[in-house]
Write a structure and sequence with these properties.
heterodimer; A: alpha/beta; 5-stranded parallel β-sheet; 5 helices; B: alpha/beta
Chain lengths: 128, 381
């Protein structure tokens, strides 16, 4: 599975990478902002995007709506990572097309479970 | 130019007054009886009215109360006959500013007019002063509100920013434990555990700060909140917790519909009941009673428990930020629950306080006004 991680905080990125590696995901690209993410998505095939909502310049939501609008990858599973537990933020994320929502600090088990769930649901063709 | 209306049924008196007033620079109007006088008053709105108390038909006192009704600030000078002190007293009681005796002495009239003018000036000055003051207060209040909003925003931003390093600390500590824990001795693992506990504590405090800053802002438009339904819903969540320790939560009284933010109000009840459950007495199951009383202008709500109680000297400090009287370890509740409740209650125009008997239990009270009190505009005006 090829994963694209969009996260500008290097410590958080490291934590997610370690978690992914421990469950056998070896192909992980890490970018730090929306523009770089768009470039990667244009050029490569990606199976899952992990997206931090709070990014420099453009925020995560703009990438989320970009992904959902592009027919090439509109069905791509996108799990958002965020420090917010507020129900309104969760609602918004799902409303804008998030496939999953992980709250930081993320417990590894939770991150891995969410990824498994999302990938399973989304690759059986069930998407928005 | 000051308009003076003279009302007297005797023509010589009228003419006398008219001539004198003109010579003094006033705009003079005259009337021969009460009805005519009132008609002229309505049309011209003079600032001063000189009226004879004794007249056929409508007497001076009737005229007095009528003009005072139309213009509470009008200066009315009543003219009375010799020995008519009772009339004078009645007139003064009904709002006359002054009286002069007939036959009219010019000096007396001059003095009365002068005093009337002084009063008018004073009144005008007072009004201007009050308006200036009001304007100043409005300005200062706006400035204060702005500063408040900036502060709330600051707390919000900083709290959010603080979360990131906490995430990293928790994450790497967990990794350390998992991947290298077996290479550490007991002490090493204990130290790591303490780091983790502190990181968790920080995380909770930051979460509370964020909640507190949200509690102080109007997040969404206010609406009618059916408290009965709200409490029922709340109890569905909390009853299980109480029953686990063999206790219960009861509702007494009828809960009304109030005006406010439903999520915030729910938080107040939740935090109070949560508190009651957290500070239960070790020797008995928690019995919590939630009630409501109609006290005329507002409703009083209470949450009563049979827990460990609060020492009297702490009763007013329990609502302070990060104030916790007993370390409750990993307890879900936090040191901010009461502070947040206070913020929300005060935002809704109410008050919150507590009474307690140490060792027996505490009761938390808060009020909510019946009348919708402002706010309800998102963004806090």
């Amino acid at each position: 599975m090829r994963v694209l991680l969009v996260e500008d905080n290097p410590d958080h990125a490291e934590l997610v990478k370690v978690a992914l590696e421990r469950v056998g995901v070896s192909s992980i690209s890490v970018v730090r902002d929306v523009t770089s993410a768009q470039e990667v998505l244009e050029e490569q095939d990606v199976d899952l995007v992990l997206l931090d909502l709070k990014l420099p310049k453009m925020d995560g939501f703009s990438l989320l709506s970009w992904v959902r609008r592009r027919s090439k990858c509109s069905g791509l599973p996108v799990v958002v990572l965020t420090t917010s537990v507020h129900p309104k933020d969760m609602e918004r994320a799902y409303a804008e097309g998030a496939s999953g929502y992980v709250v930081k600090p993320m417990r590894f088990g939770e991150l891995v479970r969410t990824i498994h769930q999302v990938v399973r649901l989304w690759s059986t063709g069930r998407h928005q | 130019m000051i308009k003076v209306l003279s009302i007297d049924d005797e023509r010589p008196a009228r003419e006398f007054l008219d001539e004198f007033l003109r010579s003094q620079g006033y705009i003079s109007l005259t009337a021969g009886d009460g009805e005519e006088g009132l008609a002229i008053f309505r049309r011209e709105r003079p600032q001063v009215v000189i009226v004879d108390v004794v007249m056929p038909g409508m007497d001076g006192l009737d005229v007095l109360s009528e003009v005072k009704r139309m213009d509470p600030d009008v200066e009315v000078i009543v003219m009375t006959g010799f020995g008519d002190m009772n009339m004078v007293i009645r007139a003064l009681r009904e709002g006359a500013s002054d009286f002069i005796q007939k036959p009219i002495r010019l000096e007396a009239l001059q003095v009365a007019l002068k005093r009337a003018e002084e009063r008018m000036t004073l009144r005008r000055r007072l009004r201007e002063y009050a308006e200036d003051l009001e304007r100043l207060v409005e300005e200062r209040t706006r400035e204060l509100q702005k500063k408040n909003e900036e502060l709330e925003q600051f707390v919000y931003t900083v709290s959010h920013d603080l979360k990131a390093p906490v995430v990293a600390i928790e994450g790497f500590t967990a990794l350390l434990m998992e991947m290298y824990g077996d290479r550490l001795d007991d002490q090493g693992r204990r130290y790591l555990e303490r780091v983790r506990k502190n990181a968790l504590h920080m995380e909770r405090m930051i979460g509370d700060l964020l909640e507190l800053s949200r509690a102080g802002r109007v997040m969404r438009p206010w609406e009618e909140v059916d408290l009965r339904a709200l409490i029922q819903g709340l109890l569905e969540d909390l009853q299980a917790r109480a029953e686990k320790s063999g206790g219960s939560i009861k509702i007494v009284g009828t809960f009304p519909v109030v005006w406010g933010d439903p999520e915030h109000i729910r938080k107040v009840f939740f935090n109070l009941i949560d508190n009651a459950l957290n500070y239960a007495h070790p020797e008995r199951p928690p019995e919590v009673v939630v009630g409501c009383e109609d006290q005329g202008e507002h409703y009083v709500f209470f949450v009563k428990d049979n827990g460990i109680g609060i020492e009297p000297e702490y009763l007013d400090r329990i609502f302070d930020i990060f104030r916790r009287l007993e370390e409750k370890g990993e307890v879900q509740g936090s040191g901010m629950g009461l502070t947040i409740a206070k913020r929300i209650v005060e935002n809704h125009g109410g008050k919150i306080w507590a009474t307690s008997v140490p060792g027996e239990g505490s009761t938390f009270f808060f009020t909510l006004p019946k009348e919708a009190k402002g706010e309800g505009v998102v963004g806090r005006g």
